Amino acid sequence: MDKLVIEGGKPLSGSIVIQGAKNAALPILAASLLAEGTITLDSVPRLLDIDVMLNILRELGCRAEHIGETVVLDTTAIHTSHVPETLMNKMRSSIFLMGPLLSRFGEAQVYQPGGCAIGERKIDLHLQGLQALGAEIEEIGNRIVCRAEKLQGSDIHLSFPSVGATENIMMAAVLAEGRTTLTNAAREPEIQDLQRFLNAMGAKIMGAGTDTITIDGVAELTPCRYKVIPDRIVAGTIMVAAAATRGAVTLQNTQPAHLSSLIHVLRRAGVQIVVDGDIIKVDSAARPKSIERIVTSPYPAFPTDLQSQVMVLLTLAEGVSVMKETIFEGRLKHVDELSRMGADIRVDMNAAFIRGVARLYGATVEATDLRAGAALVIAGLAAQGRTIVEQVHHIDRGYDRIETMLTKLGARISRYSPVPNKEMTR
User: Is residue 146 annotated as part of the catalytic site, yes or no?
Assistant: First the structure.
């Protein structure tokens, strides 16, 4: 397995352009199945999760090319609605294919998805939503078979504002007969991006970004060209890294409104932030301040995907902070790794009590999931001495060559392959 070697203690500085959003690109790639023909998507990052989704689409019969940051799909020759189990096991977002396949072909055969081990993430709400649209669902061991001669619009209420379920129901309902009204829907920016993409293909959807989404079914969708929004979690990770290293970084190609909760938290910690259009400037020369309490909740509240990164910053703050995780019960596994580096953190149930220390120290640590891995990289950048981050494949799921990105900001970070003394090239 690859590893990252970081020589810490150097403030980040410079300017960086933020990549397209993985969590927007994945459902949009899945939604491309709803139209027959050639679809071009811009600002699609080169990530392991994107590669897995493209390989799934190829297995279904799509032609797919990823050149630079542009993906070109030809969905004309799709010949199956059966998603291979081996590919579904690699990525949870493969579950997004249920809605589009069912809507276009009347059938979808999928499996329980894989992904990061950050806690239980059931797909019950996905299945309940599809059943409300008229799908018959049969579970055979680990295999899920969905069938519907023609989906019908329906009133659907989610018991929890699940992002994935909201997106799957949206994609299934666009070709259904009649109107679907989805209440207690998730409100994330990635859902708004999916609405814009589907509407660009001819769908009739309103309300994304609020808790009520209305979808009026149409007879067909047509191919289009579309640009994916910037990745707010990548942007947030860089912002926290700049603050943790007491650096000064300018981020370009951002949507600051998507980062309002993080900006609020960082300012409470004493970080200087200036917003100018799609540019965010972060400057943090002093030791951060502790924050009494941060609670992760669905958007627009503080995101679970930035919890571990901000925790690193709080380990270096003056005073005691409390971080409460309410979304995923398994998302505090990075605490043990940070403790190896000198952090003073106590966990009680789903809350972490963080007593700031003067400095962190380099150590060999293991990325247990995507965002925990990003947090450990930030810790390594801020720490005194050398840090080795193992299990880097988790990080590659969401960050396009994180070592290259950080090197542009002056970080001393290198990627090494298992072959002795041979640096990996990508």
Answer: no
